[in-house]
Specification:
The protein is mainly α and 418 residues long. It has one domain. It contains 17 helices and two strands. Strands 1-2 form a two-stranded antiparallel ribbon. The longest helix has 31 residues. Keywords: Membrane, Transmembrane, Transmembrane helix. It comes from Novosphingobium clariflavum. This is Oligosaccharide repeat unit polymerase.
Amino acid sequence: MVGIRWWHSPALLVVFFVIPFFLLIAAATRPVIENAPVLASHQVYLTGILLLKALFLLGGLALGAHCTGTVQPKKVLRLENTSLDFLFWFTFLAYAIWFGPLLASNPGLILATLSGATGAMYEVRSTAQNISGVTTLSQFGIAYAVVYGIKVFQDREKLPRRYTIMLAVILGLGLFRAATFSERIAIIEVVVPFFAIYVSSRKPGATPVDFVLKFFPFFLYAVAPLFFALFEYLRSWLNYYAAIYDTFPHFIADRFALYYVTSLNNICALIQLSPNPTFRGEWTLNWLYRFPIIGSLMPSSSLRGEDVWFSQFLTIYASPEYNNTTGVLTVAYDWGMVLGMALIFVYGALAGLAFASFRSGRGAGRYFYPIFLYSLLEILRIGYIYDGRAISAMIGLIIVALIWYKRSPRVSVGGSVR
């Protein structure tokens, strides 16, 4: 691809963005934790040893991606347009089943949420609760955006206009979910992978826009607080925090920082305060624990199960509102450093294979690559690749790849990392 940037490479992204960002978070952990007005405990659990372990694991992630990042698939895999119809209608159906009854019975509650009425958003969350196996299908929207993006920007296909309209509907549904259900990630996880595909088709230049695209991860996190503020104003500022913080900008800066430093501090606390490794995979196999039928067969968990233990821990040592853990040290908590290193190396290797497929325009891995890329951008906040959100999108891609594939003799010219 003519527009492959350095950050498209999983190995380079980890080395030149994720690791520096991690060090920044580690440096900010103590002052942010100790001065936060909303945490039950101001104790910092990050130690020098845990810092080194995290850096070691991140190094293994980058090494895995580097080892497989040049493997070139031999076959070109394209998908029929029918794959887009399948992904769209299942996404739409999932949203209809999830939010349809609430929209039909109490549209005023939705309007109240959008207008920032106190408590309205939390009432929506309690009314339109997740439905196992149904709401999961809403993640097929990510798969739709990926397939659409690859068809249009990588394979240069001319799609009927209705597929663009379907993409707009999926983005609108994600925006609706973000605004009314307090899930900002519902729109980000669609837009960022799609944008990464678009950038790969754009030839680098010397314009200000190209400069931004060259350093996209840094600009993404520079403007993230603005996007964050847009939704937090309705979600928590009007409902609660206006009485705690002196100004809205102060609240946003503190809350944005807390999401990252508490993700690191939470897992460090778990490692120090609870027996580990557990060898049950509560964090790294989180998607499997939530999987219909299979999840009930997984080993019992004192941590994840009904989240009782973890909720109690957060109430005592942190805050139930900041309940994330990074996707780095969680592998050590679940499996220990040796197996954890092996797991995160495989994670990197799979990301590298997907990147090589994407860069060459060949193989099935190119459809999975944007999801791996997004997971690396989020790895310091959450273990996105271990979560049902990512796995559900990948299941959608697997289904359409098995059913609606077509092989073409065309071979794309591979791009070089810039």
